Amino acid sequence: MTQAPRLWVGIDASKAHHWWVAIDDTGTTVWSRKVSNDEAVILACLSEVLALASEVRWAVDLTDTAPALLLALLAEHGQPVVYVPGRTVNRMSAAYRGEAKTDARDAYVIADTARLRRDFAPVEIPTELAADLALLTTHRCDLIADRVRLLNRLHDVLTGISPALEAAFDYADHKGALVLLTGYQTPAALRRCGQIRLTRWLATRGVRHPETVAATAAHAQHIQLSGQDTVAGITAELAAQILALDERLKQLDRRISDAFRTHPQAAVIESMPGIGPILGAEFLVAAGDLAAYPDAGHLASAAGLVPVAKDSGRRTGNLHRPQRYSRRLRRVFYLSAQTSIIRDGPNRTYYLKKRAQGHKHIPAVIALARRRVDVLWALLRDNRPFSTSPPTTSAAA
Predict the structure, then answer these.
(1) Which of 322, 263, 323 is nearest to 289 (CA)?
(2) pTM for the complete prediction?
(3) pLDDT digits (tens, 9 = 90+) for 25-48
């Protein structure tokens, strides 16, 4: 059988299986099959496809855990893979005949889109450190989501038996208030205990300023609401779960910090005001290979901090927020910029300058985030820590 000079293989990935479609230069399907997500099956199909052409280019619509085995095997065999976003696949599907939605059709659209466009980002297999940080930061996001859910449930049930006690503390940031709820949840229980005994009880459990917590918890509600005893048990359970989750988050933060600081440029990233080890780790995960950004503009564009034109006819000069960018990378720059304006320094000065020009808070923070991209990119390029004074340059001979 004569080999084709080049083939494009589109892969519609999923957890249990992938659908592969190989097309030639004319867009004709030459190979199409449902492939199980198993190493032996993938290797067998890979051998078949590689035998059909002297050059094969691959395209996938997912890069998360579902195609991880497939991407690792392709990388091991030196096969180039590009990422075709799902939004692009969805919009391109409307340009083809028919309205059917099948895995084979999606795989064909992926392959043909990769054939027509040559600007898709290549898929890089992350290093061991990047993979570890990605798993740890994702797990941290899941734990924080669980904590928010538990806090919302705690506020809801506590309002049902004691609105005053629910409003007395910010339970998201007050460990002493959560410790209080593990032992006393109702107005009647607090009255029976008394402020002096409650202060002593909190002090033995390591609560800071126990007398303040005990005094704040004392209130004048005397009526007993229906279901109070049952809700009190649920409240104590929720408070204990939140405290346990906080301890897990502390341990996880230490693991993330230790892993992040093994990166050769961790000190450079962490020297930027507003970026600590957690945001630094998220930056490394979201940005990927830092060498892939030839200048600061490319990094800012990837974070969605560069407006794009929206002109039509006589309407020119219209700019709007881009739709295709890394939400996670934008979040890192936005949160770090917002944190950096808390203390005096060049970041706060620039933010106040934008506010004086008439910008509201969010546009001013976004403008600061864009400026900080230039600074961080330059620091990483020169491999030097942040300093408020400009770097010294040697005079030209």
Answers:
(1) 263
(2) 0.80
(3) 999 999 999 999 999 999 999 999
